[in-house]
Amino acid sequence: MKAYVLAMTLAVGMASAAQAAAPEENVHYREVPFAQPVDTGDKIEVREFFWYGCPHCYTLEPELNRWLKRKPAKVEFVRTPGVAQSWLVHAQAYYAFEAIGMVDKLHGPFFHAVQTEKGAYNTPEAIAKFVAKHGGDAKKFQDAYASFGVRIKLDRAKRQNADFNVHSVPTLAVDGKYLTSPSMAGGEEAAMKVVDFLIDKASKERTRRAAR
């Protein structure tokens, strides 16, 4: 009898722990007020809203990079810079990095430089020198920075920040429907676990819609 009671106690305890571990809506994540279209087609979209000057975004980077190495094949990751007025130089620089084909090479080093050399990269001229230092062409960067194409992307980023109801960074959006962050989830590792939970949730929702 004692063994039975002990087994039941353990089972209840394990079930309670599993329930406690499950992310809760409006605690660890929230729904986007109006679901947004994704840019990733058949793949589940995970979108990070970030700012190079944000220390919390920088703290998330190592955990995010580990997650990117193990993310499911059905998931595509995209970035959208935050667009508060004082962040716009960095947002425009991000899209200029994309335009010259150097975002993968420059994203991490530029993040580190902005965080460790406070105030050094708040103008396009200073960022152009950074690009040149890291093997890019300063003039190509400046041309891209001032280009119509980059400004179009910046305008779209402004709309996306508003449409996703993003009030702070870092924020992670899953499949245009759900938002989480380290502050909501309880840390960087926890945030990526919530992202995994939301990917599974979004995937099941897509399957149900397809079956109708």
Put the structure in a nutshell:
This protein has 212 residues and is of the alpha+beta class. It contains 9 helices and 5 strands; from the N terminus they run αββαβαααααββαα.
Characteristic key phrases:
212 residues, alpha+beta, Glutaredoxin, five-stranded mixed beta sheet, 9 helices, 11% strand, globular
Structure characterization notes:
The longest helix has 24 residues, at 188-211. The protein is globular and about 50 Å long. It has helices spanning 2-21, 55-70, 88-99, 103-116, 124-133, 138-145, 148-163, 182-185, 188-211, and strands at 30-31, 44-50, 75-81, 171-174, 178-180. The chain has 212 residues and is α+β, with helices and mostly antiparallel strands. The model is unreliable at 4-9 and 14-19 (pLDDT under 50). The chain has a five-stranded mixed beta sheet, sandwiched between helices.
Number of strands: 5
Instruction: State the strand order across the main sheet.
Output: 1-5-4-2-3
- Low confidence ranges: 4-9, 14-19
Q: What would the principal axes of the Cα set say about the shape?
A: globular
Within CATH, the superfamily carries the name Glutaredoxin
Could you report the average pLDDT, rounded to the nearest whole number? 93
SSE topology string: HEEHEHHHHHEEHH
